[in-house]
Amino acid sequence: MRKIREVLRLRAEGFSERDIARSVGCARSSVQICLWRAEEAGVSWPLSANQDEGALEELLYPRRAPGIEVHPAPDFEWVERELKRKHVTRRQLWREYLARYPDGVKYTAFCVKFQTWRRSRGATLVLEHIPGDRLFVDYAGDPALYTDRTTGLEQKAWLFVAVWPYSARIYVEATRTQTSMDWLGAHVRALEAFGCAPRALVPDNCTTAVKKALRYDPQFNRAYAEFAEHYSLAVLPARVKKPRDKAAVENGVLQAERAVLGGLRNAKFFSLAELNAAIALIVADMNAEPFQKRAGSRNSVFDAEERPVAQALPARRYEYADWKIGARVHQDHHIEVGRAYYSVHYTLVGQRVDARLAANTVEIFQRGALIATHPRATRRYQRLTLDAHRPPEHRAYRELGIDNLLARAERVGPATREILARQLARKRHPGEVIREALGVLRLVQDFSAEKLEETAALALELGLYGYAAVNDLIKRPATRSHEKARSRLGNHPNVRGADYYQ
């Protein structure tokens, strides 16, 4: 109020609004508002003797009488109840309130007053849960126990707990470990027990779910992300060290530990299956037990309100698989995963690909695109190769088998085939036959099939089966009759005769 008195005094002395603002240390707009209020209240400088600071404040800033609302207050109990319904937002409820009371409060004031009203009802803000929206999952801290029949040793089994926060419907299962295989297997069996899937999963930041716990952009484990994609789920991990984010499952874990571990403390089991059968009976009783402060039970609320709005399960069950990320393609266009070798297209040599190893198949991806599928190897270091992945020259070489070459020669003629058969009979290694046979068959390109067949017949009569002899005969046709040529060559000291090759 001292600043206001100074503003009125300086204005009466003729100073500008800008100079007054600079002098009293406030904004020019504040000076303008002060002068406007003084003009509306009929206050001018100098002030009368009875206008002290309290009287001046009452004239310039009159207070409303207590209990009088300028705008009608919203029914916040109705607002809270409507917000629990699907697809309902605060802005939508504010518009409906404004339709009934056109002079009502603005949207910001509506939200602020609603938050103030909620805080006044208790120190803790209760999370709103939408039916069928989220499923909370976690492992209990204390294990259950069973005895191995073979060794007689006591084994630990970890309690997996899944809870629907709206209906509190719970699922509990004991697993041997907390590895990804058991973790995801328990998820699958939980969804099948519920008969539906939520729109989002809320785990904690365990390594089987979250690879890197970032508050705004968490990076998920590859297998967990694949599981979520299979069931069309979002994964919304709780914040680190914020147990209230998943209070529903924390309470579910507490109840499961009390009911299961406490209820079975004197029982003895000899297999994990026996333990899970006993747990299923306890959980069935928990879900059927009536609520104390709410109508119905976990089962009845879940069946009536959550199951109808939850997602249906896909036709195919999720199959757990291991991943190898960034496997390099070797020079032989194979990758090594799971102690076996699987082929990819030869153009990918030197690049990196991802491999998904399921129980019976191996799928290979590059940048998310499936590029190869193989059956899972049945023995160590087995090599599985698709012909379509080989380079063209490799495929051509593999096609150069003896039978294939004989079939090609048969299409030229019987004499040509016989030449190749005689070559096979006199060579020590099939590789030698392939080389020489390719040379004979290539003469079709330089001459013709008819010319080669005629030359092959002549070569057979002369007892000449090598590529060099056939090539010489086809280039320099004989000028004498076949009989004279054979007679002349038969008496030559350098010709060994046909009998030599038998």
Which labels suit this protein?
502 residues; alpha+beta; Nucleotidyltransferase, domain 5; six-stranded mixed beta sheet; four-stranded antiparallel beta sheet; 19 helices; 15 strands; 44% helix; elongated
CATH architecture group name of the largest domain: 2-Layer Sandwich
Number of strands: 15
Number of domains: 5
Quaternary state of the chains: single chain
The overall pLDDT, averaged over residues, is: 82
Which fold name fills CATH's third level, the topology of the largest domain? Answer: Nucleotidyltransferase, domain 5
CATH superfamily annotation of the largest domain: Ribonuclease H-like superfamily/Ribonuclease H
Helix content: 40-55%
**Percent of sequence in beta strands:** 5-15%
What structural class is derived from the secondary structure elements? alpha+beta
For the CA atoms, what is the radius of gyration? 45 Å
Based on Cα principal axes, name the global outline: elongated
Number of helices: 19
Q: How does the major sheet shape up?
A: 6 strands, mixed
Low-confidence stretches are 480-495
The CATH top-level class label of the largest domain: Alpha Beta
Rounded to the nearest angstrom, the distance between the terminal CA atoms is 130 Å
Topology of helices and strands:
Layout: H1 2-12, H2 17-24, H3 28-41, H4 53-60, H5 76-83, H6 90-100, H7 107-120, E1 134-139, E2 144-147, E3 154-163, E4 170-175, H8 180-194, E5 200-202, E6 210-212, E7 219-220, H9 222-230, E8 234-235, H10 247-263, H11 272-288, H12 298-306, E9 322-328, E10 334-337, E11 340-343, E12 352-357, E13 361-366, E14 369-375, E15 383-384, H13 392-398, H14 402-412, H15 414-426, H16 430-446, H17 449-462, H18 467-475, H19 482-490
Parallel strand pairs: 1-5, 5-8, 11-15
Antiparallel strand pairs: 1-3, 2-3, 3-4, 6-7, 9-12, 10-11, 12-13, 13-14
Helix pairs in contact: 1-2, 2-3, 10-11, 14-15, 14-16, 15-16, 15-17, 16-17, 17-18
